[in-house]
Input
Amino acid sequence: TGAGFAGFAIAGMGMGPHGQEFMAIGDPKDVRPVPWMPGTAVVTCDGHVLGKPHALDSRVIAKKALAEFREVTGLEFYSGLGPEFFLLRKDDSGSYVVATESESLDKPCYDFRHLSSISAFLVELRETLDAAGIDVYQIDHEDANGQFEMNFTYADALRTADNLTYFKMAAQAIAKKHGMLCSFMPKPFIERSGSGLHMHMSAGQKFGDNAFEDASDKRGLGLSTMAYHFLGGLIAHARGLTAIAAPSVNSYKRLVSRGSRSGATWAPVNIAYGNNNRTAFVRGPGGRLELRVPDAAANPYLLTAAIIHAGLDGIRRKRDPGEPCNENLYTLSRDELDKRGIRRLPASLSDAVDALESDDVLCKGLGPAFVHEFAQVKRAESDELLLSVSPAEFRRYVDFF
Output
């Protein structure tokens, strides 16, 4: 019957203190060791209430979307996620600073010196993920000081979401053991690039197949007609999708075109796609799609579900995404973008939630009850932070007028 919990105690489940038990029913195929807690295992679960999958449980929402994708296309949906994160520590004043304290480069990406300085943490994390059946194939120093990325092999999208959830648990626990904080905050330092969660997508009958690939693609991205229709759906529903992909107030400080000392924020601002264009909403690196708007705060189950519902709408309607834009979108003026029909992504969490609520396809796919609860939670978060006065605000305005 599962393990029972008070549903009202779990944020975002839409349950009251007078409601039924929230039952977490384990997936016997996903039991993994927890090396940082000897003698313990973690079991991935789906939430049930009164014997039925709970409509607001994010893993249930993802499984429903994946089942719909299989029904419509006859294919399995595959994804790969590239989680970026900051390693921080507290200094003598109690403030968080980057753990690799000697970093001073404006462009520290791929700097091996500081990768090697935290090798003990990285090796332990890699070994832990390996024991859990997660194949790590790349680790690198990212664009910002103290920022890193660990990539693991793609899989069916539900497994990928499960893997990311385990990865975040492991990374935070092991970092703490090494005297650090592993932060998945999208934009902790305003002068540096933020942490993304780029999602690579493909589809096939089985692992290794790729129905999104077509070497004869005249646009040069190696994409099939199905992939272009799926992409058309992502473009059409981009604004509502952003609420799920960038789910915090802080997320929208990452989705900017300027301000990073490295010279690029690496985050999209405009709704367009391109070949190897890392300034675009979607990149086509050859035979697959990479969605670049998600950040490290995104729930991978909800992200998967929202992407599938947007993409399926594109497949059903045979949506054409238009021609690719392979220019630096950060440098194009608003007039130039308007002439090409390129829309902007939402500039705030509040705007993104508005877009989600007005998107009938995403509301129906994710479920009206979920969207209602999500909007309430996110508006409360937005209002709380909007009503606070930051130190920077105070310094700027206290004697300005």
Notes: The chain has a mean pLDDT of 95. The two ends are 63 Å apart (CA to CA). The chain has twelve helices and 14 strands. The first strand starts at residue 3 and ends at 6.
